[in-house]
Amino acid sequence: MMALLLPALVGGVLTGGVYALVALGLTLIYGVLHIVNFAHGSLLMVAMFGAWLLATRLGLDPLAAVPLMAGAMFAIGWGLYRFVIGPVGRGDDRGVLLATLGVAVVLDNAALIAFTGDSRSIETPYALQMVQAGPLLIPLAKLVAFAGAMLIALLLWAFMALTDTGRAIRAVAREPEGAALVGIRPARIFALAYGIGIACLGAAGCLLLPSFYVSPQVGGMFVLVAFTVVVLGGMGSFPGAVVGALLVGITENLGNLYLGESLGPICVPLLFIAVLLVRPTGLFGAVR
Amino acid sequence: MALARRPGSQMAEPPLLDVAGLRAGYGAFEVLRGVSLTVAAGEVVAVLGANGVGKTTLNRTLSGLLRPRGGRIRFAGSDITGADHAAIVQAGLIHVPEGRRIFPNLTVRENLLLGSYARGRPARAATLARVLQTFPRLAERQRQKAGSLSGGEQQMLAIGRGLMAQPVLLILDEPSLGLSPKLVEEMFVLIGRLCAEGLSLLLVEQNVVQSLAVAARAYVIEHGSVALSGSADALARDTRLRTAYLGL
Lengths: 288, 248
Hints:
Chain A is mainly alpha-helical and about 290 residues long. Chain A has helices at about 1-35, 40-60, 65-90, 95-115, 140-160, 165-175, 175-180, 185-210, 220-235, 240-265, 265-280, and strands spanning about 130-135, 135-140. Chain A has a domain at about 20-220.
């Protein structure tokens, strides 16, 4: 059994890394805007299709496309907030929430028209390559995705902790009026934070593409996991998103290993319920 | 040591802040019904009044958080009526709000650094050093989360954050509110020191006696307009002040 346990653990950590990237964007948007971004899954799908188009039409490797897609998704997210979600929501939380839901419906159906409901994938030269690490054989694509996700998480943390703009984002999250009084324009910060959250999806889409199928429904699968991770880790918490994602990835893999493919998936919801029973605000959530 | 940026001396000096017939409110409720007041460069002016007469609304309108409905605000030679809050901060009119509004999730140092958000980096280190010298207690607690500070320390931080913006005019809104008598004493000593350094101050307070002791002039606001004004000495002797202030 030990021979299977270690690979399952490592596999869980690797998958969790990419979950973390999806969850980081979600938790950032929640932490600053105090809304649950229902468009998150759909925007991840857009990012995956973007990376897929770049790979199939232009022959650009998804890993090389990370900066490009992160930039493009930042622009899309910023524009969406600035011209759709912000104006439609008018600062009312319910309005903002419904606006993100509307964006999701539009994107999902647009993708169905453009790409049909088929699943698609790309072939990369490294898709089947394995890295030998002691007794372990690790798929190269997953290893790179994990490393990329952790690097981006680190960069995001540094940006939030060390730059004026990052501090302004954190300040607006808790005290928008105080922020206005030092000359920060909260509306700009909201659009910026939304853009950064969506840029994370741009990177995630590229990192996921070598090992996952893409279809117009793909977002739902990841975003459900991301919501679980964000609530589990503590809403709005960066360390919570990373630790929660790794935990979910490991639990998922161990569940499938020991309970099988049909019973295994109950492990993550069980973990979720167990954590919230003990800590209702999540692992790293502020205790009120 | 001067934390204030003084505007260049002019021949016939117009007031630094010149507010005329200012009207503002929320929804159908008009709070300010034509407030006029001036602050000269280097002057300390107190705005007094009971709770709910419109002092905080006045400050929110001056700092651009609330759009005026009428009247005119001139500051440092330019018309800032209806300007947005960031432009007003840029011009050097800095508002330290009632209730402090510090960033509880950021460290003390980060709060101070954000104070100079509109000023950029060049003068930041020097300004920070001066502010930390003014508030040794904040210097000791630089790495601490601002939310973990005591009420008095949070008020110091709010003022320190305001000073980080290199104010031309500083509006202090109820700086002594909710502080223990000993801390109120300390607060007014600090305000006196800032005055002595030449900072122009608009001090909005309920604490009449101590405010009149540091201010040169004062306005008493009642029902959204100026009921009484004059030199602090004259007002301190005025029996009408008691009447107006207590709303009798």
